[in-house]
Design brief:
There is one protein chain. The radius of gyration is 14 Å and the shape is elongated. By secondary structure, the chain is an all-beta fold. The protein has strands at 2-7, 10-13, 18-26, 30-39, 46-52, 58-59, 67-72, 77-82, 91-101, 106-111, 115-120. It contains no helices and eleven strands. The protein starts with a strand and ends with a strand.
């Protein structure tokens, strides 16, 4: 099995910064891509940043220029550096990973448990 564990969420004032981490562990042949999503109550989960192994990052317009995603492939870890935070960034942040595993080397998608980010005005 595979587990994704996020950390780094918390309460921060507007204009501040936070860094989220997500570590994938378990029966992993390769991590093909990792993404960050966020969700507020009553809204759909939206993808805000992603990176494919060996590829370039991509961002939602709402976070472009303020957030940066990076990956440590040796540690199966993805980071989300969040700067210039605004109250609208308040949400539960989820990590998603596309992973190749198993004897047949099939791709699977896994989710972390989520971490709360709250930005006060």
């Amino acid at each position: 099995q595979v587990q994704l564990v996020e950390s780094g969420g918390g309460l921060v004032q507007a204009g501040g910064s936070l860094r989220l981490s997500c570590v994938a562990s378990g029966d992993i042949f390769s991590v093909n891509a990792m993404y960050w999503y966020r969700q507020t109550l009553g809204s759909q989960r939206e993808m805000i940043a992603g990176i494919t192994t060996g590829g370039s990052p991509n961002y939602a317009d709402s976070v472009k220029g303020r957030f940066a995603v990076s990956q440590d492939t040796a540690r199966n870890t993805v980071y989300l550096q969040m700067n210039s935070l605004i109250p609208e960034d308040t949400a539960v942040y989820y990590c998603n990973a596309v992973i190749t595993r198993g004897r047949q080397l099939l791709q699977y998608s896994y989710w972390g448990q989520g971490t709360q980010v709250t930005v006060s005005s």
